[in-house]
Amino acid sequence: MSPESPRTVLVTGSTAGIGEAIAVAFARGGDRVIVNGRDPERTDAAAERVREAGAAGEVVPVAADVATDEGAEALRSAVPDVDVLVNNLGIFAARPVFEIPDEEWRRFFEVNVLSGIRLARLYAPGMRERGWGRVVFISSESSVLIPTEMVHYGMTKTAQIAVARGMAQELSGTGVTVNTVMPGPTLTPGVEEFIRDRVGDDVPFEEAERRFIAEERPTSLLGRLIRPEEVAALVHYVGSAASSATTGAALKVDGGVAPQAF
Predict the structure, then answer these.
(1) What is the DSSP string of 65-109?
(2) Cα-Cα end-to-end distance for the chain
(3) Which end of the chain has fewer surrounding CB within 10 Å, N or C?
(4) pLDDT digits (tens, 9 = 90+) for 183-241
(5) What long-range pairs does 38-43 form, CB within 8 A, spacing at least 24?
(6) What's the rounded Cα separation, in Å, for the pair 205 and 194?
(7) Other residues' Cβ atoms within 10 Å of the Cβ of residue 84
(8) In Å, how far are 90, 199, 220 from 136, measured between CA atoms?
(9) Integer Cα distance of 206 and 204 in angstroms
(10) The pLDDT of residue 260 is above 80
(11) What helix, strand, coil percent values describe the chain, rounded to 5?
């Protein structure tokens, strides 16, 4: 049975982009939303933007670096229980695969994968005890279409799908679901900077976006970058009571970039 509203929803890495859009979607629905980032000022500012975007529930900023044990424990101390955990925190960068040093492989795994594992370990047992919960990992179409320029990133996105599936199996029949959402290339500040680095600052961004999709993501059926609120809409559904029969799944919101039909 779903908990009475408002539920407590934690969205990691929610000071910009997809994470902030997800926070807005849940806050507009009346949930109590925990906005999380590393920097206190940025986290406070993002929480205020979420409130101003039409929040119908409480919005609470909690600054903590959940890519570390200490940061995750600090967050757990501030927010002992959550009903919906959205593991959105992630980093990406372009680098030739044979030039990626060991420490960079480790850093990407720590931030993109282990942060979500750690928080699920802290919060999912409480969900199981209460008989309801949602854990969502924000992966990427790069999990199945490994980008040549970001192999270390793609590796972490594939790992998230495996972890989510295994956790869903462990929580079978408990009322707690675990799923992965796979966005495609999405217009966030980080992606805009990434595209400008690859296409050039002297090109208007609309043209840079068109070139990037045409040249580097030519399988896109959408023909443009996805918008953060489009990803947030699917995450909001997966985090709702309506998604009770969806668990252990990897759900695409990638504009058709990954050509697999399933």
Answers:
(1) -TTSHHHHHHHHHH----SEEEE---------GGG--HHHHHHHH
(2) 29
(3) C
(4) 999 998 888 888 888 888 888 888 989 998 998 889 999 999 999 999 999 999 999 99
(5) 38/63, 38/64, 38/65, 38/71, 39/15, 39/63, 42/15, 43/15
(6) 12
(7) 27
(8) 13, 33, 24
(9) 6
(10) no
(11) 50, 15, 35
Of 153, 157, 160, 187, which residue is the catalytic one? 153
Domains of the chain, CATH where assigned: 8-185+227-252 (3.40.50.720), 187-225 (no CATH)
- Which amino acid belongs to residue 74? A
pLDDT tens track for 16-60: 999 999 999 999 999 999 999 999 999 999 999 999 999 999 999
User: In the annotation, is 153 catalytic?
Assistant: yes
Whole-number Å distance between alpha carbons of 167 and 117: 9
CB within 8 A of 203, min separation 6: which ones? 211
